[in-house]
What we know:
The protein has 299 residues and is of the alpha/beta class. Helix content is 36%, strand content 27%. The protein has helices at 40-47, 71-74, 90-100, 106-114, 130-142, 160-175, 187-193, 211-218, 230-239, 259-269, 283-292; strands spanning 2-11, 14-24, 29-33, 55-60, 75-78, 148-152, 179-184, 196-201, 204-210, 221-226, 243-246, 252-255, 275-280. The strands form 3 sheets. It has a 6-stranded mixed beta sheet with strand order 5-6-7-3-8-9, with helices on both faces. Strands 11-12-10-13 form a 4-stranded antiparallel beta sheet, with helices on one face. Strands 2-1-4 form a 3-stranded antiparallel beta sheet, covered by helices on one side. The longest helix is centred in the middle third of the chain and has 16 residues, at 160-175. Adenosine-5'-triphosphate binds at residues 11, 14, 16, 34, 36-42, 185, 296.
Amino acid sequence: MIEVEGLSKQYGRTVAVDDLSFTVRPGLVTGFLGPNGAGKSTTMRMMLGLDRPSAGRVLIDGRPYAGLTDPLRQVGALLEARSVHGGRRAHHHLRWLAQTNRIPTARVDEVLELAGLTGARRKRVAGFSLGMHQRLGLAAALLGDPPVLLFDEPVNGLDPEGIVWLRNLMKGFAAEGRTVFVSSHLMSEMAMTAEHLVVIGRGRLLADTTVERFIADNTQSYVRIATPEPARLREALTAEGIQVTDTDDGALAAHGTDTTKVGELVARHGVVVHEMAARSASLEEAFVQLTGEHVEFGR
Length: 299
Ligand SMILES: Nc1ncnc2c1ncn2[C@@H]1O[C@H](COP(=O)(O)OP(=O)(O)OP(=O)(O)O)[C@@H](O)[C@H]1O
C-alpha cells in the first residue's frame, strides 16, 4: 500500500505538486493520470525518496522510503529509461544490482525472462532500443520480487505487441496481490489497464475513483439523429423536455434520453429520419475536458 499525505513540492516559484492526498491499494492496478507537467513524475520521485517534499509525506507499507530496510525487495520502480551506462551488458547490470542488494544472482535470469530480454542478455546496453531500455528497467524493478511496483510512463517506446504484453504483466502483478501504480498521459491506454484512477492537473487532485465511475461521471451519451426536418424534430423533442444540440456534421444530438424514446417520438410526430444511433463522447475527450483548465503546457 502507498499512502500519500498532504504532499507538496515547490521548485522556486513553480508549484509542481500541491497538497496531494490519496492511497494506492494492493490487488489492483491504479493508473496515475494527468497532462504533461501535471506533477506525476515529481510525485513518483518523492514516493521513492529521490526528491524531498516541501510538505507532507509518502508511506510505503507504513514507512517512508528512507526507512525501508531492504528497498529493492519492498518497492520496484521503473522511472526513466536509459539510465544504465551504455557500455554495460544487460545481465552484468542486473547481476551487479543483485549483488549490491543481497539478492541471489539466480534471480537475474528469471527477470530477464520475465522482461522478454533473454535473447539480449549479453548485448551492450548502448545498442538497445528505447523499448529494450524499458524492458531492462522493468527487469531491474522486478529483481527483488517486491510487493509494491511503480511505473512512470512504462509504455513509452514499446511497440503495440509490447504494450499488450506489459498491460497483461501489470494486471498479473495486481492479481498476485501486489500494489501497482502506473503513470500515463494516455487515457485510452489506462482505461484498458487500470481499475482505479488517480487524476491530477497542475499538481492538484482532480479525481480518485474507479475507472468505471470516472467514465460514467465524465462522458456524456446522446442520441444522434440525421433528419431532413430538423426544425420539426427539434420542436417535438424540446416539447418533451429533451435537450437538443447540433452536431458538427449537421445532425441533431438529443441528450439525456435513449433511442427507444426518440424512436417512439419520431413515429408519433411522423418525422422523417435518415439515421439514428446512440453515441457517447470518448473517454479521451472527457479527460481532456476535465484536465483542460489544469494544463501546464498548452498546445
Ligand atoms: N527539477 C525541477 N526543477 C524545476 N522545475 C521542475 C523540476 N522537475 C519538475 N519541475 C516542474 O514541475 C512541474 C511538474 O513536472 P513533472 O515532470 O512532475 O510533470 P509530469 O506530470 O510528470 O509531466 P510529463 O507527463 O510531461 O512527464 C512542471 O512544471 C515542471 O516544469
